[in-house]
Amino acid sequence: MICGSNTTEAHPIVGLKVKEAARRGAKLIVIDPRGTDVARLAEATGGMWIRLRPGTNILLLNAMLNVIFSEGLDAKAFIEERTENVDAIREHVADYPPEKVADAIGIPAERIREAARQYAQAENALILYGLGVVEHKGGTAGVMALANLCLATGHVGRPFNGINPLRGQNNVQGACDMGTLPYNLPGYLFTDDAVSRDKVAKAWGVASLPAKGGLLEPQMYDGAVEGGVKAMYIVGYDPAHTQSNISTVQNALKHLDFLVVQDIFLTETGRCAHVVLPAASFYEKDGTFTSGERRIRRVTKAIEPKGHAKADWEIVCMLSQAMGYPMLYTHPSMIMDEIARVAPPFGGVSYDRLGSDGLVWPCPTPDHPGTPLMHTERFPRGKARFMPVSHILSEEDADREYPLVLITGRRLEHYNNGSMTRRCEKFDEIAPCELVEINPEDARRFGVKDGEFVQVESRRGRLKVIAKVTEKSRTGSVFMAFHHENALVNQLTSPGMDYKTLTPEYKVCAVRVSAL
């Protein structure tokens, strides 16, 4: 079951695996408003494409869970042995029968029932989900709703089962593992745990570490405007291009007393910086990447860095030295050794052990083989807890003034802000500019013709782009990617954010499209 993921374009290697599985007879259930390649693949191979209205993920998933419980498709022995709070979740989803929510979702009730049956009755069932789940006001709740489906059916803790987030960029997993979340230290030790703080402080040779967590990214921008945040150090990230509602980000950057940007090319954010530090690309440095399956793999330098560029770790060490705290590493393997000493899940990881295939954490000791499969016998908290979640309305929806919903995403030819891929002539020949994909019915309604320039406008800005009339877009919605710096699509996107993580709501934004 693939939920909110344009897998073949946003994660093409995973997409190849999905295609291979479909050719071998695996049934696909694809939940997506857009007619993506993987949605068409599902239909072509006997699976299902659930073309729901944007922003109704939780309604759909709760309705599927209602079917699983009401039709006795739940894994009763697994639930009894390995979960808790099942009575609360049963009572909660009893209020979501497919017939009650079908109109809001835009899918016939019987089709919702069939999707629930296929998922529940499969011998093995894997969920892949992408940013189409998390980039909503109810993103966290949407992930919990998916987890509830896994627990209710017992599709977890066994090979070929479970739930796998498809991350937005490579090494997001590794960055989180190393403590870049504002409430975590390396290895997911919590800042509010005194024992963990003392352990890390001792390893780092300091008297103490702050007990209070840091700020989430949107809170940093608010802090800059309000005057509490004076400086930012942005590494390998281009928020002035890729963050949602970017006019607010650009305004925040202007309020800073000092902005440092460290990247391999000059980006939109780099143009706002007081200092730009030239970083080496992954071809030019040693280190590790950690994939979404928690596999830590070596990256080996192929060429020396060009010009003044240096590896990120070297730049950080030089800055630290200049600020009075010596970091005396001479190779990334020394940093990995420190990680093993500090962070329990990585206690057995070293460069000597990584080899060609890497290691999958948790790998707590030097003789531990790694843990490719999680939750086989127990969950980290013992029993997994069902979490009732309710539908959360998007920050804004289509109305008379802005009658369409904009969904943003990615295209196969370009990557993220395009700072690398737009420098490749062949990629740029294939996808040289941004398009707005609009359904033929909506195109007729608003006088839009294929291949002609149109204006796309939200409450926050407007863009001039070329229209592509296509059935890929659901009636009432349009799609654009955010790769091109001459069409900063995220000028349009909503100020809505997830209630817990503050992840921006990129996937639902009210717009109007007009011919020029």
Concise summary:
The chain has 516 residues and is an alpha/beta fold. It has a six-stranded mixed β-barrel. The mean pLDDT is 94.
Describe the protein's architecture and organization.
- A hairpin with a 3-residue loop joins strand 7 (184-185) and strand 8 (189-190).
- The chain is globular and about 65 Å long.
- The strands form 6 sheets. The protein has a 6-stranded mixed barrel. Strands 3-2-1-5-6 form a 5-stranded parallel sheet.
- It has 3 domains: 2-166, Dimethylsulfoxide Reductase, domain 2, CATH 3.40.228.10; 172-360, Rossmann fold, CATH 3.40.50.740; 404-515, Barwin-like endoglucanases (Beta Barrel).
- It is built from 20 helices and 21 strands.
- 34% of the residues lie in helices and 16% in strands.
- The chain is α/β, with parallel strands linked by helices and 516 residues long.
Q: What's the end-to-end separation, in Å?
A: 41 Å
Which fold name corresponds to the CATH topology of the largest domain?
Rossmann fold
Q: Given the helix and strand composition, which structural class is it?
A: alpha/beta
Question: What is the typical, i.e. mean, pLDDT?
Answer: 94
Count of runs of 4 or more consecutive helical residues = 20
Domains counted in the coordinates: how many?
3
Largest sheet: 6 strands, mixed, barrel
> What is the CATH architecture annotation of the largest domain?
3-Layer(aba) Sandwich
What Rg, in angstroms, do the CA atoms define? 24 Å
Proportion of strand residues: 15-25%
Q: Spans of 5+ residues with little confidence (pLDDT < 50)?
A: none
